[in-house]
Design goal:
Low-confidence stretches: none
Shape: globular
Distance between the termini: 21 Å
Largest sheet: 3 strands, parallel
Number of strands: 3
Strand content: 5-15%
Strand order of the largest sheet: 2-1-3
Structural class: alpha/beta
Mean pLDDT: 83
Radius of gyration: 13 Å
Number of helices: 3
Length: about 100
Amino acid sequence: MTARHKVFVSYHHANDESYKKIFNLKFGNAHDILVRGSVEIGDIDPTSKTEYIRQKVRDEYLRDSSVTVVLVGIETWQRKHVDWEIYSSLRDTKAIPARG
């Protein structure tokens, strides 16, 4: 069996939670090809300062993920952290080496 990837899923939490659950069920449970590494609703207080949220996502979720999947819905562009999560996934730093 091939190694499973730890997958970070970036998505619009308010609108697309059901799609993220379907994705996890299909690929995480049914096919057992991924390990979930995404932020779940309630993991981080949404009223926290933006920089704190970004640091927590970077240090606790993105650091050891090997794949980032972006679920794109009709209002994904409005979610302030999606573009940052994509950028951080591609960025080469000491803490998170570039993947590719």
